[in-house]
Structure formats: structure tokens, C-alpha cells
Specification:
This protein has eight helices and 18 strands. By secondary structure, it is of the alpha+beta class. The chain has three domains: about 1-260, Endonuclease/exonuclease/phosphatase (Deoxyribonuclease I, Chain A); about 270-310, no CATH class; about 320-370. This is Endonuclease/exonuclease/phosphatase domain-containing protein.
Length: about 375
């Protein structure tokens, strides 16, 4: 069992704020805490002596340039210190912690992200998600987790095709729509919405007066089956307006091997139009034994079904045109044309919505066809 958390610290610029953080960390169970909005301009790699145990403090580099208030870092517990492979600050808003395979523990990559708020222009927000998608796709670790403050609100699933979103949540906003698009295009799972929790254990940000609460910190995972729980920890308090969000995982090397080497035979599907045509070739014969006639009919239907059987093909959720737009958006972003990138991003979102709408209609039609297959034609 592994516990991965995310926490917007508001600041870790002073040694006092770091010490306060460690005091609170010693009160909870954690393996990794993704810290955002550190506001540090100097690197820090500390080992803190608690008297009873040694907690491996902050691992990595906490940096931000003069124009940023970001900065991300990973707080790693001492029991995982030997598993740490590397920590890289990919941008001032995205960090990557890699844990190596050791003993029964599988290799793991944890991305820590701090998204721009809605006050930033859309180009800045789009650039953040393009960078995050690029780094995520370039990493080939079997188990991958993304944590952080996305300044995005994701509510419960609204349509059946939103399988990446769970059925629980508070509300949606525009930033949440963009985060949902990122989750869908990378085929990952939004962890917060998978579990039913009271509102008091969902919100991660509260206004100074306590009037408003938002669920804007998120935990996202590549493989749903390894996620067992997500919820906030109210007793963790350092003066920040955010609360610590904690997820529990079960990363199994046995599960990794099973997923890698399990052979999945394609499920057969029946071409009902062809089956109806073949079954219509049945010819009655005059026989005295009705049981023999019945057995012959059953055999004829089985043969017809076998001839009409084919391998199930995976249908694309997105059209080739939409995928082309997504690739074009990436190329435009890489070329530095942010205005055109923003326009293409809007077109991508509209195209994705239309594709999902058409996909849903096709699935409903197919389901209705399966429930009411065509009847055999009378000879």
C-alpha cells in the first residue's frame, strides 16, 4: 500500500515554513507529498531529525523565476529514500519524481503540477497542458500518477462516454473542462470523482471567511484498479488556504506482469444481416422424427452464426479529422505560434464533443440492435 498526497503550501520560502510543514507531516501517514506553490528561489534538500525517526525532507529543486509564483517539489518519506531514482523540475509548474523498482515495489513516476489560474491568458494555460501531455506521453513507466493544484473544478460524470470521470464530485468550471479534455486524450482516470465522500472531505480550498469551498486539487492515475481511496486530511494544517489531498494505491508487480503478458482473445461479434440471410436458407424436410428435424435446425443455426461471426474491432472514440486537429495543435504549439494554438485548441474541444455525441448515438443504436435482433425470415 502506498500513500501519495498533494498540497498547495502557498509558500516554503522560509526555513520556518519548511519546519512547520514537517511538523504536520509527522502527524499523518504518507509516502510522497507533491507540494505546489513553493515560491522558493533556492534549492533545498534536507533531512529532518524528529528525535524518534528521520524523515526524508524535500527531495529535488524548488525554483521559480522572477515572473512566476509556482515551484513544485516532492516530499518523500524516509522509508522510500532508497527507492528514489530522480527528481526533475521540468518547468516551474511541473515536476517529475521517479521511484525505481525495489523488492516487491514496482517502478513509479509521480508528476506534480501547478496549473495557472483563470486570471492568466488562455495561451499560458494551453501551454501548461501541452507541456504536461508531452512529458506524460514521453514517460513509459507502467504505473504513473499525476497530482497537484489544477485550479479546475470537475463535477460528476455528465454523459456515459465520460468514462474517465467518476460519478461523484461538486461542480464544473471552464478550467475543469480543459482538465477533462487532457484526461480523456491521455486515457487516464480522474481519481477524486471515483469515490463517494461527504462534501467536508471533498473540498481542498476554502476562502478566508469560510464562505466558499472548491475542489481544485486533483489526483489522476493511469490504471484505475490500483487506486483504493481519495480524500482530504482536515487535521493537516500549516496556515495555507488549501487542505492536503491524499490517495491510497496498491501497486503490485504481480498485477503489472499480469497486465503486460495477459493474452486477451478478441470477443466475437455477429453480423446479424449476414446471419439472417444464411439462416433463411433453411429448408424443411418431411421426416417422421421431430427430434431429428429439431437437431438439424439447431445445427443449421449454429453453422450460420459461425459463418457470420467476426472479431470485434475497437471503434475509435475520436474521428481521424479530430486526431489530425490534435496533432496539428501540438505541431503549432511546438512552433511557438500560441495564438493559432489557442484557436486550434478550441476547435479540438468542439470536435471532441461532436465525436463523443456521435459515438454515444452509435452505441445506443448498437445496444438496441442487440436487444432486438432481426427475426428469422419465414421460408
Amino acid at each position: 500500500m502506498m500513500t501519495i498526497c498533494t498540497f498547495n503550501a502557498r509558500t516554503l520560502a522560509s526555513e520556518a515554513s519548511v519546519e512547520d510543514l514537517m511538523v504536520q507531516a509527522r502527524k499523518i501517514r504518507y509516502d510522497v507529498v507533491g507540494l505546489t506553490k513553493t515560491r522558493r528561489h533556492r534549492s533545498l534538500n534536507a533531512t529532518i531529525d524528529t528525535g524518534e525517526e528521520v524523515s526524508f525532507g524535500t527531495f529535488g529543486t524548488l525554483e521559480s523565476d522572477s515572473n512566476e509564483v509556482g515551484g513544485v517539489v516532492a516530499l518523500v518519506n524516509t522509508n522510500l529514500a532508497m527507492n528514489v531514482d530522480s527528481f526533475a523540475l521540468l518547468t516551474t509548474r511541473i515536476g517529475r519524481l521517479r521511484l525505481r523498482r525495489c523488492g516487491s515495489m514496482s517502478a513509479l513516476t509521480v508528476f506534480i503540477a501547478y496549473a495557472p489560474t483563470s486570471s492568466y491568458n488562455k495561451d499560458k494555460i494551453e501551454a501548461f497542458y501541452m507541456d504536461l501531455e508531452k512529458f506524460y506521453r514521453e514517460d513509459y513507466t507502467f504505473y504513473k500518477v499525476i497530482v497537484g493544484d489544477f485550479n479546475a473544478k470537475i463535477g460528476p460524470r455528465r454523459t456515459p462516454e465520460q468514462l474517465h470521470i467518476g460519478t461523484h464530485g461538486l461542480e464544473w468550471n471552464e478550467q475543469g473542462e480543459r482538465l477533462s479534455e487532457f484526461i480523456m486524450t491521455t486515457r487516464i482516470i480522474h481519481g477524486n470523482s471515483q469515490f463517494q465522500k461527504p462534501t467536508s472531505l471533498r473540498w481542498a480550498w476554502g476562502s478566508s471567511g469560510g464562505e466558499y469551498h472548491n475542489e481544485i486539487d486533483h489526483i489522476i492515475v493511469y490504471r484505475r484498479y490500483c487506486l483504493t481511496d481519495v480524500g482530504v486530511v482536515p487535521k493537516f494544517y500549516t496556515g495555507s488556504d488549501h487542505r492536503l489531498l491524499r490517495a491510497r494505491f496498491f501497486f503490485s508487480r504481480r498485477g503489472e506482469k499480469a497486465a503486460k503478458y495477459k493474452k486477451r482473445s478478441p470477443k466475437p461479434t455477429i453480423n446479424w444481416d449476414l446471419f439472417t440471410t444464411l439462416a433463411g436458407f433453411w429448408e424443411d424436410t418431411v421426416v417422421d422424427n421431430i427430434d431429428e428435424e429439431y437437431e438439424r435446425l439447431i445445427q443449421h443455426l449454429c453453422d450460420s452464426a459461425k459463418k457470420a461471426e467476426g472479431s470485434r474491432t475497437t471503434k475509435r472514440r475520436l474521428s481521424h479529422e479530430t486526431l489530425r486537429l490534435i496533432r496539428q495543435r501540438g505541431a503549432t504549439r511546438a512552433a511557438g505560434n500560441y495564438q493559432l494554438t489557442s484557436e486550434l485548441a478550441k476547435r479540438c474541444r468542439e470536435a471532441i464533443r461532436e465525436d463523443l455525441k456521435e459515438r454515444r448515438a452509435a452505441v445506443l443504436a448498437e445496444a438496441a440492435h442487440r436487444q432486438h435482433p432481426p427475426r428469422l425470415r419465414q421460408p
